[in-house]
Amino acid sequence: MSVSERWYRNLETGLHAPLSGEILERLSRALLLGPDERMALYGHALGGAGGQPAENAGTAGNDAPDDVTDALAELTSAQTGFPTYLTDQAWNLLDHNAAMARWFPWVLEPGANLMRWALTTTAAREQIVDWSRHAAQYLALLRFALVTRPDDAGLGALRDAVLDDRVCRDLWDQSPKVLAYRHGHRYELRLPHVCPQTFTVTSQVLLPAYRQELRYVLLLPVNR
């Protein structure tokens, strides 16, 4: 790392130890971190996902839309062919289209939360084929969000609710993996009210440039 003994002692004891970009790069190389782990490290050290503090995410640049959430809600409703939905940084459902509600009626419930549904409900474990593997990825996404937004009360409450489930707790304890995005992820669904056979979809995730805590997701069926 090429740092002083004093710097290292301060880091271990919780005192101030400057984390410049150069030091973070050395640390990333020393620990053989992958791309998502590097993003988590930089986000945690610099005060927000990707190094951009959450409170400034909507003010970067002079051409930022006044209300990105409303614009994305309109985009969500305009999509009629495939399920689409919009979530905040804690995976609370902000909007969805009719196709999403037809595939997944739980989105109509008050306080609907994608992560809580996917990880803790019996319906999700029946409808998502190979649920355990995908649950581990959801948990890695949650861990990344918690590292880059450690003071977010909504994320903390979501973590507590998810880890109260024994199966999720066991999966959480098995791996420290972090995952920044799930864009292009392919998975199989078992939805007899939509299709008599299991079918495959990919999730296409769009992040607004100035509001990266929002996620606009489109589910696209895959022809096999």
From TrEMBL:
<feature type="domain" description="MmyB-like transcription regulator ligand binding">
    <location>
        <begin position="68"/>
        <end position="221"/>
    </location>
</feature>
<dbReference type="InterPro" id="IPR041413">
    <property type="entry name" value="MLTR_LBD"/>
</dbReference>
<protein>
    <recommendedName>
        <fullName>MmyB-like transcription regulator ligand binding domain-containing protein</fullName>
    </recommendedName>
</protein>
<dbReference type="Pfam" id="PF17765">
    <property type="entry name" value="MLTR_LBD"/>
</dbReference>
